[in-house]
Every structure is written in structure tokens, then in C-alpha cells.
Amino acid sequence: MRPEAPGSHELLVRDHTVYACVMGSRAFGLATEDSDTDRRGVFLAPTALFWRFDKPPTHVEGPRKEQFSWELERFCELALRANPNILECLHSPLVESVDDTGRELLALREAFLSRRVHETFTRYAHGQRRKLDADVRTHGAPRWKHAMHVLRLLISARDLLRTGVLTIDVGAARESLLAVRRGEVPWPEVEARMTRLAREGEEAAARSPLPGEPDRRRVEDFLVRTRRASALQPGPYDEVVQGVVRGRGVGEH
């Protein structure tokens, strides 16, 4: 059997996913009747594919609607940078599938957490707030759903910095956040909440129990061991590797 042909990257998601979860409003506890089901996942591209000129993709959209997956190495890189979407994916309460590699990845969740989250979470929130301000100037009102999620992210960042634990479900904040989504809270009040949460996040960062940097060595050890184990597994990619080894000898043309 030959390996996946170019353009068939969805097979990597189908056959090699190590972790899959639901994200978005359903994971945050903010779903309504019309909410989509956003699926996120991590796949492990077989090591033999990296020996080819055409490397496996770092991410794949699909095959299902609202589905997006990252290759394990790319996922770990982004998590070490404290990417909010990636860290939240690792902590989703709605896990759809996980294998042994995925369980080891989940066991590393704390290794990715550091005080870097203050910069990355708040930087993303501030970027979104600038867009909301532009909406207000242009249209007289913000996109209320986006405003709700900026508040949610600022709450998440503050609580993570305070406790060292990333909690995805908004819990008791659900109704107040949904009121923002429905446009029931005046924009000046929403702005004031954002400003207060940002200030509380900054104060929490100064005395956070989180380490200054993530545990890169521990994560890299996991990635190397996983790649090595994959290289030793027989599979449909052996034909490519064997073809190289058994092909022309050194100096042959």
C-alpha cells in the first residue's frame, strides 16, 4: 500500500489522531440552540513521512464540518508559546477520543503552562477589543458574541494566573456572559468589565504560582520518544523507505 497521495491529508486525521475534543461555546458552557460543534484534534504523522521531500502538513482542516487538527509537533510548539487556543484545547472538558499517545500529551498539560499566558491571552484579548471598538465607531455597537468571548478569555487568564489551573467551563459566569451576547449589557459597562479584568490579570501575574517558562525539555523528550516509537512501527509507509534503501546504490545513476 502506498502512503497518502498529496491532497489526501484528511487521511492523517482519520487514521492517526491521538487526541480529539470539542471546543468553542460547547466546551465553555456557553452553547445556545444555534451553536456549532467545533472539533479540534491532534494527529501524529508517521515518522517515515518526514523522510520524504514532501513533508506532512502542520495542520489539516476537516474532514468534518468545523473540524481542525494539528500535527503533534506543531501543536506542542504552539502550546509552549502559550497560544490560548491550543492551551484551551488541551484542557477541554469534552474529549471525544484519546489513545495512549494522547493520554501522555494530556499528562503534560502543566508542562506547557507558564506566566507567558499573561502576555498571550491578554494580547489576543486586546486585539479583539480594538476590533470591537472599531465596530462601535462604525456601526454604533460591537459584535456582542465577540465581546462575550473577550470577557471569557480575560476571566480565564486572570483565574489561571491566580490558581495555576486552566478552567474552560465558565461555570457561574454563564448567565452574565450570555447577557452580554444578547446585547443586554450597555457597551460602556462591558468596556469597564474588560478594563477591570485586564487589571486583575496583571495583578495576578505578579504573584502567580505558574513558573516563568514552560518545561520545554520535558515536552521535547515526549516528542522525540513518540517520533522514535512511530519510526519502529510497521505500516503502509514502509514501501517508500524500503524503496529508497533498496534502490540505486551509491554512485549509481
TrEMBL record:
InterPro entries for the chain: RlaP
Any Pfam family the entry gives: RlaP
Region (Disordered): 199-218
Protein name: Nucleotidyltransferase domain-containing protein
Organism of this sequence: Streptomyces rubrogriseus
